[in-house]
Amino acid sequence: MATETQQGTLRVAFIGLGNMGGPMAANLVKAGHAVRGFDLSGEAVERLAAAGGRAATSIADAVRDAQVVITMLPAGEHVLAAYDGPEGVLANATPDAVLIDSSTVPPEIPRQLAKLARPGTLLLDAPVSGGTAGAAAGTLTFMVGGDAALVERMRPLLGNMGRAIHHGGPLGAGQTLKLCNNMLLGILMAGTSEALRLGIANGLDPKVLSAVMQQSSGRNWTLEVYNPCPGVMENAASSRGYTGGFATDLMAKDLRLAHGAAESSDVATPLGDLARRIFEVHRANGHGGLDFSSIFQDPVTLAQALNVK
């Protein structure tokens, strides 16, 4: 299988061709794979076809002879709907197809899919980090849960879309890795925005402050590649009106998922919960469709955050 993947001969069905899934599917086409894609948006399907993929008319049509099925969908309910039922992935994929869900969902969703599937179905959960820029550049980080041998078998294919593939453990572990990462990301973005606002309010140049923190103990990913202050970093979402990138709605969703995982495992995550509340207020203030770094321009008070359930 690894040899086939490296030669670009796999038949891949890609379900969900949005801001993340579309570029990921296009990179598989570039790598030489035969990609048939489906999305509820006809425009998204047309973009894949223009990139060299094939348009499918339904999930069943997309997966009918695929060797690998990849799904990239907004939430757990969408994943379950795509996989279950007479027109879904499980009913129409071939018995030996490898099914990979790259959505960000609760860890119990992939385990639920395993219960719905026939015995022996090859399943992986493989959420990603890296945002739309990483999806377009093929530099995503994959966090994978499932059988170790199957992960190795799929590593070359995933490598066509990302530069790092980490196996976290059994099915569901990929989602847990993703939720831990994004909880920390939410904390970092909120904290970095606060530090920048404090400096600016006291007369500092945000470019100078960012450079100092980036080379000091406050260094973090948001300062290095995703500065939330407009004009500091040319290619960041903040410098293009907070468009594109990773929406506040999605960050709020991921923080809710992390909160749920913390509650179910009886782990205290006070900073993660505060970040969840901050982004929920930011979302309620009408910024759900903007990149999550737009929290920089919408200071949320502690009182506002603590008022969120």
TrEMBL record:
Enzyme active site: 178
Pfam families in UniProt: NAD_binding_11 (PF14833), NAD_binding_2 (PF03446)
GO MF, one example: 3-hydroxyisobutyrate dehydrogenase activity
Pathway: Amino-acid degradation; L-valine degradation
Entries under Gene3D superfamilies matching the protein: N-(1-d-carboxylethyl)-l-norvaline Dehydrogenase, domain 2, NAD(P)-binding Rossmann-like Domain
Leading EC class: oxidoreductase
Gene Ontology BP terms: L-valine catabolic process
Record key words, sorted: Branched-chain amino acid catabolism, NAD, Oxidoreductase
Residue ranges of every copy of the 3-hydroxyisobutyrate dehydrogenase-like NAD-binding domain listed in the record: 172-296
Keyword Oxidoreductase: yes
Cross-referenced InterPro entries: 3-OH-isobutyrate_DH-rel_CS, 6-PGluconate_DH-like_C_sf, 6PGD_dom2, 6PGDH_NADP-bd, HIBADH, HIBADH-like_NADP-bd, HIBADH-related, NAD(P)-bd_dom_sf
6-phosphogluconate dehydrogenase NADP-binding domain location: 11-167
The enzyme's E.C. designation: 1.1.1.31
Catalytic activity field: 3-hydroxy-2-methylpropanoate + NAD(+) = 2-methyl-3-oxopropanoate + NADH + H(+)
Similarity section: Belongs to the HIBADH-related family.
Full protein name: 3-hydroxyisobutyrate dehydrogenase
